[in-house]
Design a protein that fits this description.
The protein has 481 residues and is an all-alpha fold. The chain has a domain of 218 residues. The protein is 72% helix and 0% strand. It contains 22 helices and no strands. Helix 5 runs antiparallel to helix 12, helix 7 runs antiparallel to helix 11 and helix 12 runs antiparallel to helix 13. The chain is globular and about 75 Å long. It starts with a helix and ends in a 10-residue tail after the last helix.
């Protein structure tokens, strides 16, 4: 080992020791921390203005071509700098480290989410690189299904793939299929894209892996893994009602079958198997060992990296043989898949979690919890959360609810999980899946084309809430302490 590697190892070990030594102190400090009410202070008003301005830049990301992570990361830093300044000026020295303790608490929550998503994104990227998603797309195109069958199949697949993969990847994959099959039939492509967005969001609502909001609820320990499946039928109804109404406009004609040919790369099925094993390990780590789910995910990522090493050796050997006849290619490299993770999205989550955490430290989340869950009641408040998530991204909304931690039954926690997950379907800009498909089917699937079917999506939204309230009535009787 050379001097540089030794130096890097020593630095890494030192950092690890510092982090480990801080963990127990951090957990104890958060419960004992003394907070000031800054909701009517200039810092509170300035923080609100900063967050609104930063989020406005996120909303117009497509127009100004500035990545969404940039404004929220800056806003997070400025909000916490102002909070720390006020606490440092307090004559009582017990306040001086409050900002430090609270921001470390938020950073710990972000670290769990970041590592979990990094592992999941690497797996999804590797499956894409091995041709898994291309093979599924080619199969659907080559089968010669009618437009109505494609409409239902893509919706059904989006609903059942998104609980395992993320709803964004699922929506993009299925949108590629309907655009390839639909061709110039813009009416079909439009309703099929709407159907896919609604299905992907609905499918993600009944699984901890389907959406960032459900993942946050699960990681927080508010709802256990198996309890999410109580939302399966409400989620299915949320998609099926608008899908049925939209399907009435789809003609039962059969377009020309495609001739796409996709061959799965070596190790594709092994990667799928490792991904399923990783999910199982995350569930078992949480349910049986009482460890954070991220431990199982990162262990699974380690398995993938080891298998990636095997693939690299195998492909390097093959490449050497091919180079003798003038052919060559780059061997598989797992770190290339890690590089291709959605880093802008991961940094966006950092900014959002710290911004919302800062507003919580100021006192706005407690105030919001009192106004919404105290005055309106949990059912009305949770339905309203879903409507808000159609306009504002559901991630800061759900993180705010989890930071408030209102006293609610399991049924109410499942209700807010459902509404935050599917409420974004009401508008095309209400979910990452909708925004992504708008970019892919630019000029065809638009904000206004989605808005025309908002009434049908709203019917599904209302029906799913009613079904959950009726079907899972017993869950509303147990209070979470």
């Amino acid at each position: 080992m050379n001097a540089r590697h030794k130096s890097q190892t020593m630095v890494s070990a030192s950092l690890l020791g510092i982090v480990l030594s801080l963990m127990p102190q951090l957990a104890a400090a958060v419960t004992d921390v003394k907070l000031l009410d800054l909701t009517t202070h200039w810092v509170g008003y300035a923080a609100i203005a900063l967050f609104i301005f930063a989020y406005a830049l996120v909303v117009v990301e497509e127009e100004i071509h500035m990545r969404k992570s940039k404004p929220v990361m800056v806003a997070a830093g400025l909000i916490w700098a102002m909070i720390a300044l006020i606490y440092a000026q307090q004559p009582d020295s017990s306040y001086h480290h409050t900002a430090e303790v609270m921001i470390r608490h938020n950073l710990l929550e972000y670290a769990e989410l970041f590592l979990f998503l990094l592992a999941a994104m690497t797996y999804i990227g590797t499956m894409g690189e091995r041709g898994v998603f291309d093979a599924l797309r080619a199969w659907l195109i080559n089968k010669g299904f009618s437009l109505r069958t494609i409409f239902w199949l893509t919706g059904l697949l989006a609903f059942f793939i998104s609980p395992v993969a993320d709803n964004l990847t699922t929506a993009l994959l299925m949108a590629t299929v309907v655009m390839a099959v639909g061709g110039n039939n813009l009416g079909f492509v439009t309703v099929a894209c709407i159907n896919i967005v609604v299905a992907a969001n609905a499918g993600g609502a009944f699984s901890p892996f389907g959406d960032i909001t459900t993942l946050m609820v699960w990681q927080k320990g508010v709802v256990e893994f198996h309890e999410f499946f109580a939302l399966f039928l409400p989620s299915l109804v949320n998609w099926f009602i608008p899908a049925f109404l939209m399907s009435l406009t789809v003609k039962n004609v059969t377009p020309e079958a495609g001739n796409d040919s996709v061959v799965l790369k070596d190790g594709a099925f092994v990667v799928i198997g490792l991904f399923l094993l990783t999910i199982a390990m995350a569930v078992c780590a949480h349910n049986f060992l009482h460890l954070p789910p991220v431990v199982g995910m990162m262990t699974g990522l380690g398995f993938l990296k080891i298998y990636g090493y095997i693939l690299k050796l195998r492909e390097s050997r093959l490449m050497m043989e091919l180079e003798e006849v003038g052919e060559g290619k780059r061997p598989f490299n797992i770190f290339r898949q890690i590089e291709r993770a959605e880093w802008d999205t991961l940094m966006f989550f950092y900014g959002i979690i710290l911004c919302v955490g800062g507003l919580g430290t100021i006192g706005y989340l407690s105030l919001g919890s009192e106004l919404m869950y105290g005055d309106l009641g949990p059912t009305t408040a949770n339905i309203l959360i879903g409507l808000i998530s159609a306009v504002v991204d559901n991630i800061p909304v759900m993180f705010a609810v989890l930071s408030m931690m209102p006293e609610m039954s399991h049924g109410q926690w499942l209700l807010v999980t459902l509404t935050a997950g599917v409420g974004g379907s009401l508008l095309s800009i209400g979910s990452a899946a909708g925004v992504a498909v708008m970019g892919q089917a630019r000029g065809i699937y638009t904000f206004f084309s989605h808005l025309k079917w908002m009434w049908a999506i709203a019917l599904g939204y209302a029906a799913s809430i009613w079904l959950h309230l009726w079907l899972n009535a017993s869950l509303f009787e147990v209070t979470v302490h």
